[in-house]
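User: Show me a protein chain along with its predicted structure.
Assistant: Here is one chain, sequence first, then structure tokens.
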Amino acid sequence: MAEELILIHHGIKGQKWGARNGPPYPLGADDKSVAEKKAASSHRSRKADTTQSDKFWTDERKANAKKVAKGVVITAAVVLAAYGGYKLSQMPVSDSREKLVDGLLSDYGGSSLARVGKLADQVDTSMVSSINHGNTGREGEINCAHTSMAYICNSLFGMNVVAQGFSGVDEASGMVTNGRSKKIFDVAFDGIKHIEPPKDGALTKSLSQLAPGSTGILRVRVKGGGGHFINYEKAIDGSVTLIDCQQRDSRTQIVPQTSRVFSFLSSMYTVTDMMDFSNATVGDKADEVFRYCVR
């Protein structure tokens, strides 16, 4: 019998040509390549870490962690607030603002810095009492325009002047007619802000219209007849002090709004004009006015 050569194909059922599962034979579950074993090991490691993390962060531990975090935030806020309060307490308290002064006349002295809107205890009592000290008799009783101007010169512009007594030269200057007038202030200073008082001219209501941190002059009508000029200081906190440099009695020279004297003045004065000098400067014709009013 002649020998026959037979070709028999050997393979795996379902296997497709070109789709290999390893070297020329199929791989079993334990016969993975090196790359496949590394990938499987990394996957198992990540899964184990997640499992351990889930076991550690129980609901109770999560709740406790949130409480601790909240406590830390509150503590930090309290510490920052306390530190901020401490820093503020170390800062100087400014009850009035500072004003740079321009246009000073060398003949009357003057400095380059002044304070606007003083508190009652910041007003220079010796300066106030000296402004009308040398004027005796009637000359020192009807010169309120001069005394109020002298206070502005000294307090706002750092000058060192006193008021002249009234002797009729106001009218002689040609700038004032029909008696003393607020016109002399507008000639001597630029930038005065005139504020219209309320219709009834009530003193307290009028002062409420003034800006905090301001200094100026009030023109008032006195109960029983006559007019008068007085100075005012309104501090940043809103408190008002009246200054009347014409007065001889120290109790009526510097009058805080909270005093009994202020209550009395409220019943005597009706405000007719309010002049805010906070942003005023010395005018070009100031010397024409000063020679009749201050020295």
